[in-house]
Design brief:
3 strands; three-stranded antiparallel beta sheet; alpha+beta
Amino acid sequence: SRYLKAMLSNRPLPKLKPIKNRGVLVDLGGKDAAGLTFGVPISGKSAYLAKRLVCRMHTRIFNPSYFTTKS
């Protein structure tokens, strides 16, 4: 929001923090995937399992109600 406010009021823009990319995982369909994690290329079932783990972790963080059961 600080960046947007500065831009709209024609003030100097604040510095943005660099994004730390830890890797990329791509689902290729079925139980195959490929990716680059922490600079190490992975593919096949191990990449698929890593992608499932990351997706599940993000779901828990950003949508915790997804895992609660409704009675």
